[in-house]
């Protein structure tokens, strides 16, 4: 019989998604709260009971009772479906069960201590979806038990979906039956209470002293039925007094038999036979002591296998009794004694599969399995039972002694402890979380100030542990010397870590306590522990040999005798010497092999003083044992075959079975495989280290050994050491998307959680923690049994196929590349340090450095690899094959050019521009003549531009032979230089043949980019044109900037700043346009949509030509002359000045005043000089201005004091005006006169003088106007004076002005002879109006007669002149 050994994995480290929870309700009232969880209790997530259901439809389902019986959890071991949790309103009584009904429903039956029987029906989806998409269809039913007074101390056994047996404390049996036919059936159960009737029990019921003892002795501790589905409805029970009872469905107890550990049955409790003291009662805790089975050949016989423990016996743990229940009686067939290895062990479960009895023992908190053959037809007590024991492979336990030994290797204390704690399989995620929570609570209870690490939230458990453990330990100074007390600090830190590890060990010890056995398809045995699930698997040869070697004086096969000698050699050296030797060997393999192995080993042996570590007797004994081996070379090669060989089994070829029983693809199975791999690798490492130890022992004789054998030994050791390193590396916590069926947060759920206050059901959930091996196995997809799957995986790694450490095989390189692709960078770097620097290893190392952001190192290494490609490479065929396997196309590049392109793309994917450009340049230099390198040139130009290497970018731009690429990249270069404030360098570049593209690019930005934001492209464009002498384009650029700023000046808050920038732009544009010939001082400005709102009119080109007549892309343009720019500047300057003078204008929506309003407001503010200059610049009519000024002069003449009190600083109080003689009125009139002389002329038709006169006459028509004013008008507008006098009814003045006009004309005729009739023309009609108006007056006008005489004289002269002209 194959012995095998146990491998297991923790459940909390596997499942990626949070369990789906369904709270169950009850109709009972006034239910007490469940008991609170105490610190002495096991962690809530540790199961107190489990059962296993395996069917072809569902695969393997594990039922777990957790949280003190409040939660039943269903876990699928065959799929990756998240677990399902059923939350009960009260603790359930052991033991619930799960069944599959008609391949479409899972039934969970459980009895809660509140007196309710629950049936929870879970629909099963198609395939193996199970409950994943059926959560909404789960329906529970509750049945209220009538007989539940002593239910809390009872024992429940669920026979099937329609039968439940309950053992009560008084020994009676309550049978519950139901006829379930589907969802439509009611869930009413029939209750039948059976008593075990006997004369003794009837008699003792009347004796109180014996009644209590008898009731306790009759308490049922184990119930069993025939495995469901079955027609056998009988129940068998075992009570504390070791009485086996047989209960029939309708009758009750029909037979009983008292059992004892001896060969004969023991007397009844309370009596003695022959003075023998009765046996001690069994423990009242529910136990698995019965198993019912039948044989296919004799199905009418139902057998009972009962176990009677012998707790205090040093010989064994108890005995198994086999009974036949034929004819409703119990016939003992035989007995099987447990092995001596089970002494003081506790039986947890046992089962029968085929002809094998499999027993699960609890041996000091660890699982221990024994197997034996059982044949009920030929059971013979005369022969001792042969038991085959199976246990877990030896693994290091983090005891203080082991930790001390662990600290001997180099490295920091914290790193050593942290690595040991986080090693895969050492502690589960639940254990670590529980331990760190306990540690944190202990730290919070300290009186000292709390470190900030205790109040921080961490993303992962590993981060939590690394930050919190040891945070209360401080480095103090010696109070006397002031020196740091490093020794005290390290001792305290070490004790802190040891305390945390002790907490982890305590929790993990509870997690590893065995519960039950289970079976999968193909008879695979499952061992379920509180927080782990394992399997009984076959041993491979290395594991077998290590187990045999660990047993003292255990026989071993002759061909493996060398391993026994090497085991003795290691034991004689001791752990410290072996650790020193191991470190030396590892250092050798991390270095390049430059000398022969005999020389290396001889040198190391002398340095190590290997033989001095052993006593002479041990040395001679080892030499004598080695001499007893006939062929040491053959024995060594056999040992190598054991260490590096695999027993790769052929996959199952039962296609029909495969269709019905699809292979498991669960994380649990992969985790078991990973655990098996770890155990096998550990065993191989120990055996190989023993073989290397032999080489040190025989260092002086190695010159006679085959060099290839020595190289192969070290190559195999390197491979095993690499595997050992990998299996000890955790893969971290994987982030997995939440399941579709997430928590149900209904009001009922909230109420249930409030009732179950000790149920930890937070949103945060333990993330799955995998090992690297587990992640690698997930890629292989091999799920066909152990040890075959583990061996196939180890064989696929190829790490044990190397024959020399001086070479790196393709498998080793590919394995490192796989780890790198999985983002295990630390592990990859460590493995690469073992390999020589071949081309394949160097490429993987370079890719790794690229992942680690060591770009410069990666670039240097990849550049060196360039010589490995092309026709002139010097790679060996093996190195070529290894390199080809890890390249993207799994083949070698045909040239350096292709490799450089590939490397450039690698750096591009990592956004490492400098290295990308460097390899693009190398690719260009190595490119074939006919290769299209435009994309490489683009990479170089764009990369140099992005790196601010503008000289290199410009050089590449000018050198590239692709014109289209030039024009595509030049704008990007220009923009980046502008954004990087490298304008001077941009202007210094010639851009031969591409200047227009640069101008267009800058112009585009100047037109479309916000002119307020840097870089200011309009200024850059202006500088570009100025540098090239194009002043007109430079002026246009700045004028366009001013116009864009004008569109943004509507915001009062930014008006001041933007107006200053706009004025600056106008000034620069005016200066630039002034450098152009005056005849050509104009620019063309495209007409914008808001052009009609300009405050002035300009001469435009025709806008009435149909659009289809335009050249495509050409539109109307406005001619902007120098004067137009000056006008715009003057207007904005006036507007800015007005805002400065009157800041309240900014509160108005129209704070940008028109030119006329500006002039008027200046006049109203008595700033006449500024108003006149502004009006002249803006070409605004000054009629109102002079009218206002005339009014001020009139006021000065009448009331000078009132005017002087006003602000007259701009006209009366200037230095020039103040120096004039006379009164203020005189100075005011003089200021008016000079202003008219300056601004009133024939171009204005002297309208300002006319307005002045009209203003004077409008105020007081009787007062004469100033003579200088009338003189001006008499000179240029005599008729106006006459009409004005008539309008104001000043007829005397009208007569005088008429006489003056006639005399003026006569005087001119006297000087110059008339050339035509027009020369003698006078406004006779106006003169007639004067005569008529004067004659119409009541009073006589003295000068009217003189006017008539003058007219008569004028007429006569004209008549005479007319006659002479004929």
From TrEMBL:
Domain Nucleoporin Nup120/160 beta-propeller per the UniProt entry, residue ranges: 60-533
GO molecular function, one term: structural constituent of nuclear pore
Positions of the NUP160 C-terminal TPR domain: 1122-1350
InterPro entries: Beta-prop_Nup120_160, HEAT_Nup120, Nucleoporin_Nup160, TPR_NUP160_C
Domain Nucleoporin nup120-like HEAT repeat: 815-979
Transmembrane segments: none
Superkingdom as given in the UniProt entry: Eukaryota
Keywords: Nucleus, Transport
GO CC annotations on file: nuclear pore
Subcellular localization, as worded in the UniProt entry: Nucleus
Statement: the UniProt record of this protein carries the keyword Transmembrane helix: no
Pfam families (alphabetical): Beta-prop_Nup120_160, HEAT_Nup120, TPR_Nup160_C
The UniProt record lists the keyword Nucleus: yes
Protein name per Swiss-Prot or TrEMBL: Nucleoporin Nup120/160-domain-containing protein
